[in-house]
Amino acid sequence: MPREERSSFKSSDKSSEASLRLGVLASGRGSNLQSILEAIAHGELSARVAVVISNKKEAQALERAARYQVPALFVDPSHFRSREEYDAAILQQLKEYGVELVVLAGYMRLVTHTLIEAYRDRIINIHPSLLPAFPGMHAHRQALEYGVRVSGCTLHFVDEEMDHGPIIAQAAVPVFEDDTEEQLSERILAEEHRLLPQVLQLYAEGKLKVEGRKVHIRENTSLRTTR
Ligand code: GRF
To answer: What domain count does the chain have?
Structure first.
C-alpha cells in the first residue's frame, strides 16, 4: 500500500470508543476538519475522527490531524492507474480504521462508484454555494460573476454526480456588490464551520433519513440554517 503515515497515535479518549467513527478526506487547508475536531473536543459532537486521508502530501489538514493525534495518511494518486483503483485503496484504509461516515472536507477529487457504493448515503460533502447553483470549482467566483445577492453553503450526501446528492442542510449569506472572492469565501466559511458539526451530530444521533432526493431530519430542534 503506497502511503505515508504522518502520525499513528490513537486518541486516548476512552469515552469516544463507542461514538461514531469519522473518516475525513481533505486536500488542503483543513479548516472544516478543524471545526469537526474542535466540536468533538468541546463535547458538541459525539464522534471521533478515526482517520484523515489526503491526496496531497502538503495538505495542512494532515498537520491539523496530527496535532489532534489523529492518524493522518497521504495516499499518492500517482501510484495508481485509475481513479477507481485509487478509491479502492482509500476504501481499504477507511475500512481498516473502522470508518462509519466519510466527510469530504475540501476534498478536491471526484470520488468514484467504488467508494460511493461501499458508503452509500454515508458520505457527506460540504460545498460553498447554495446547490444546485454553482457546482464544481470556483463556486465563489461563479456566484460573483453571476451577480447573485445571496449565496451560502450546502451539506449533502454524495452520489455519483458531482455536487448533486440529497441535501441535508444549507446556510445562506448575503453577497455584497464590492465583494471579492476572498471576502465571500470567508463569510461562507464561517457558516460551513458552524453547520458541519451540527449536521454530523444529527447523523451521529441517527436523525437523518434519506428518501430519494430528500433528507428527512427527525426531531430537528437544534439545526439553525441562518444566524
Ligand atoms: C471549503 O470552502 C469547502 O466548502 C470546499 O472546499 C473548502 C475547503 O476548505 N469544498 P478547508 O480545507 O476545509 O479549509
So the answer is: 2
Q: Is residue 99 located within the same domain as residue 138?
A: no
Q: Which range of residues forms the domain containing residue 56?
A: 1-119
- The minimum-distance atom of ligand 1 relative to the CA of 126 is 4
Q: Is the CB of residue 49 less than 8 Å from the CB of residue 71? A: no
Q: What is the pTM of this model?
A: 0.91
Condensed to tens digits (0 to 9), the pLDDT of residues 55-101 reads 999 999 999 999 999 999 999 999 999 999 999 999 999 999 999 99
Q: Is 30 in the pocket of ligand 1 (CB under 6 A)?
A: yes
pLDDT tens-digit readout, 132-191: 999 999 999 999 999 999 999 999 999 999 999 999 999 999 999 999 999 999 999 999
163 pocket-lining for ligand 1 (C-beta < 6 Å): no
Q: Which atom of ligand 1 is nearest to the CA of 30?
A: 12
- Let me know whether 138 and 90 are in one domain: no
Q: What distances in angstroms separate CA 199 from CA 36, 40, 67, 110, 206, one per listed residue?
A: 10, 13, 24, 22, 11
Residue 115 in 3-state DSSP? helix
Which distant-in-sequence residues (6+ apart) come within 8 Å of 161 by Cβ?
none
Indicate which CATH number applies to the domain containing 74: 3.40.50.170
Q: Are residues 102 and 5 in the same domain?
A: yes
